[in-house]
């Protein structure tokens, strides 16, 4: 059985990279970070170049479709609230919300949802 997790949002939303080359809670880096490398053979390959990348495998399309259906229900107000709860500035709240919405739309488009 496979598990997918997103933990420690404060340690996220930056640049994923090798040891000591990553950033945390950095809107500029997060906006520049690629999200999806492509879809092939019934899987979606995420653009991940960080630590432990050897354990990251392509995600089956049916799992991506399920997740896209769930995350696609989030409203921008809910995303705003999440970033506000994380003590983001107004610029960060708006910027992270916009980029997360773009990534949700990329995900949905990649799997035809």
Give me a quick take on this structure.
The protein has 113 residues and is mainly α.
What does this structure look like?
Helix content is 42%, strand content 10%. It is mainly α and 113 residues long. It has a 3-stranded antiparallel beta sheet. Helix 3 (76-85) packs across helix 4. The model has no long low-confidence stretch (mean pLDDT 86).
Strand order of the largest sheet: 1-2-3
Strand content: 5-15%
Structural class, judged by helices and strands? mainly alpha
The biggest beta sheet reads: 3 strands, antiparallel
Properties at a glance:
113 residues, mainly alpha, 3-stranded antiparallel beta sheet, 3 strands
Note the topology:
Blueprint: H1 27-32, E1 36-40, E2 43-46, E3 59-60, H2 61-71, H3 76-85, H4 90-110
Antiparallel strand pairs: 1-2, 2-3
């Amino acid at each position: 059985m496979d598990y997918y997790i997103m933990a420690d949002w404060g340690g996220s939303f930056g640049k994923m990279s090798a040891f000591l080359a990553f950033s945390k809670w950095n809107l500029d880096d997060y906006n520049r970070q690629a999200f999806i490398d492509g879809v092939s053979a019934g899987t979606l390959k995420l653009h991940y170049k960080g630590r432990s990348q050897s354990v990251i495998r392509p995600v089956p399309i049916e799992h991506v479709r399920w997740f896209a259906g769930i995350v696609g229900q989030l409203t921008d107000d809910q995303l705003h609230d999440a970033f506000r709860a994380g003590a983001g500035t107004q610029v960060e709240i708006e910027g992270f919300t916009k980029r997360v919405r773009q990534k949700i739309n990329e995900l949905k488009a990649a799997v035809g949802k």
